[in-house]
Amino acid sequence: MTLVLVNPHAQGGRVRQMVPVLREAADELVPFARVQAPERVDEALDILRREHVGARVVLVGGDGTFNRWLPALLNQALTVGLVPLGSGNDLARALGLQRKHWRQALVEALRGQAHPMDTGLAVWSDP
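Structure (tokenized):
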């Protein structure tokens, strides 16, 4: 089953109101999709840590959502799709998703072909 993980705090909490319509849309696209909207970061990280290695997970939120959940995504080697419903959406712009309606982004995130992406690593020490 595919997981759609929603950040209900995205867009200043407005995404919370979209959870029912996101659940309906996901179910139409992928039978038995699990749509979850944890209230706390630690709850979201726990959900992600329980996913099978390599599973597809669709994140609904913005840059902050992606950044906070990134360690668990990497640890589980999860395949990630993005529905950009954040405030800034710099990542969505980089991925060419910024002008897509959320429904089209959801279709691509659930059904699209996966592509590898560098995550980078920055290491520094203060003098």
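The beta strands are 3-6, 34-36, 56-61, 79-84. The radius of gyration is 14 Å.
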